[in-house]
């Protein structure tokens, strides 16, 4: 399995092919179209990410010491951003998630091309993922 940094480098390479931001947005939308849909039972108030302009749900499962994330949004660009973030974080241990330095967002130019509300929403998703990692790490430590 690739490391978090290797996955981020892969994403950066995929976006490096395009100079035009319309093409990059098309790739983001395509990523979102490949995102597995959440079942209706997972679209609960507990799974809604606060701070997002559009509606975003994040479902977290913990299995064999790893966190698995599924997410959905009612906005196409946001779905694509979620797909990218989940590619990096899903299937990782809490330590991997907490120790990761996210660089792909800046390296592909997303930080300067997202609206402030979208940027805040994306940061809220990442913050929630890291919160889950901290919580499950604490639970692991407690069970030892």
Structure report:
The protein is built from seven helices and two strands, in the order ααββααααα. The protein is mostly helical and 144 residues long. A two-stranded antiparallel ribbon has the order 1-2. Helix 1 runs antiparallel to helix 3, helix 2 packs across helix 3 and helix 3 runs parallel beside helix 7. The protein is globular and about 50 Å long.
In short:
This protein is mainly alpha-helical and 144 residues long. The protein has helices spanning 4-16, 21-33, 76-89, 94-99, 104-107, 110-113, 116-143, and strands at residues 56-63, 66-73. It contains seven helices and two strands, in the order ααββααααα.
List its traits:
two-stranded antiparallel ribbon, 144 residues, mainly alpha, 7 helices, 2 strands
Please tally the β strands and state the result.
2
The largest sheet has its strands arranged as: 1-2
Outline the biggest β-sheet: 2 strands, antiparallel
SSE series: HHEEHHHHH
Query: Structural class, from helix and strand content?
Result: mainly alpha
Please mark out the parts with pLDDT under 50 across 5 or more consecutive residues, or reply none. none
Distance between the termini: 26 Å
Shape: globular
Give me the oligomer status.
single chain
How would the blueprint of this fold be written?
Layout: H1 4-16, H2 21-33, E1 56-63, E2 66-73, H3 76-89, H4 94-99, H5 104-107, H6 110-113, H7 116-143
Antiparallel strand pairs: 1-2
């Amino acid at each position: 399995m690739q490391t978090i940094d290797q996955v981020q480098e892969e994403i950066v390479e995929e976006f490096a092919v395009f100079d035009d931001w319309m093409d990059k947005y098309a790739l983001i939308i395509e990523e979102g179209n490949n995102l597995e849909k959440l079942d209706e039972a997972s679209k609960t108030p507990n799974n809604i990410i606060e701070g997002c302009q559009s509606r975003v749900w994040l479902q977290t499962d913990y299995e064999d010491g790893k966190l698995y994330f599924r997410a959905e949004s009612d906005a196409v660009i946001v779905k694509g951003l979620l797909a990218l973030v989940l590619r990096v974080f899903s299937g990782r241990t809490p330590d991997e998630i907490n120790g990761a330095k996210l660089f792909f967002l800046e390296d592909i130019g997303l930080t300067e091309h997202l609206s402030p509300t979208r940027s805040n929403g994306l940061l809220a998703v990442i913050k929630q993922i890291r919160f889950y990692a901290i919580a499950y790490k604490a639970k692991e430590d407690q069970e030892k």
